[in-house]
Amino acid sequence: PTDIDGIPFQKDKSERVLSLNRIMPQKGIHLFVDMVNKEKIKADVAGDDSQLVQDQNYVQYIKNTCKNSGFANYMGLVDDATRLRLLRNAKVLVCLKDMGYEEVFGLSAVEALASGTPVVALKSCGFSDIIDHGKNGFLCDNMDEVAKAIGKVNEIDNEYCRKSAEKFSTPVRSKVYEQMFTQVKGGSRW
After folding, report:
1. Are 16 and 90 in contact (CB under 8 A)?
2. 3-class SS at 188?
3. Nearest-angstrom CA–CA distance, 87 and 75
4. Environment class of residue 103 by beta-carbon count within 10 Å: exposed (0-12), middle (13-18) or buried (19+)?
5. What is the spatial order of strands in the sheet that 17-20 belongs to?
6. Helical segments of 17-132, H only
7. How far apart, in whole angstroms, are the C-alpha atoms of residue 26 and residue 24?
8. Which of 83, 104, 173, 183 could pair with 188 in a Cys bridge, judged by C-beta atoms 3.0 to 4.6 Å apart?
9. Per residue of the chain (190 residues), what is the pLDDT tens digit?
10. Collapsing DSSP states into helix, strand and coil, what is residue 172?
11. CB burial class (10 A; 0-12, 13-18, 19+) of residue 94?
12. How many whole angstroms separate alpha carbon 120 and alpha carbon 178?
């Protein structure tokens, strides 16, 4: 569940795209930075780069790549207020994956939608549950599709993004869980 009410909605967006993920190769941060450099898109890279991330060489590689980029701005681990500001202001949140990784649930995608920001993601089971293709974002098969989808996010209704996030709110999810536990208690299989 997500505290949707604690995430401010914003209709007007900047032209910057956002990657907000743990800084690790499985999350495809290198794919994001390569794409924004190739497509000449202004972007921000934020996410946990602390010692909890095992591959600090990868973190350093991303930092250096962004430092040498005229398009990608590396921010690393940011506080909650900055994270919410980035989500509200972003033209789009881009969620990628690499190395066979599958996203089970994309919390940052739900938070982006709650703030009125569309999401473009490589297809993954978790994003398929969150993104309504063409309505609150785009699910893509490859990086070429991701780049094209970023160019189409102005077609997305920001208010629909917010509405689509409501099904992940704490009150809604709590009712779903309560119903599920009641069914299990009554003998239904998990």
Report:
1. yes
2. coil
3. 13
4. buried
5. 72-76, 43-46, 17-20, 92-95, 119-122, 137-140
6. 29-39, 56-67, 80-89, 107-114, 125-130
7. 6
8. 183
9. 578 888 999 999 999 999 999 999 999 999 999 999 999 999 999 999 999 899 999 999 999 999 999 999 999 999 999 999 999 999 999 999 998 998 888 899 999 999 999 999 999 988 999 999 999 999 999 999 999 999 999 999 999 999 999 888 766 556 666 777 878 888 887 6
10. helix
11. buried
12. 32
Which residues pair with residue 44 across a beta bridge? 18, 73
DSSP state of 17: E
The closest of 39, 46, 66 to 147, measured between CA atoms, is 39
| DSSP code at position 84 | H
Token look-up 């066979």 returns 100
Torsion, Cα 118 121 124 125, to 10 degrees, reads 0
Structure tokens at 117: 């920001």
| Residue 106 structure tokens | 């994309």
Task: At 65, list the tokens.
Answer: 């790549």
Tokens of 80: 């909650």
Q: Which amino acid makes up residue 28? A: G
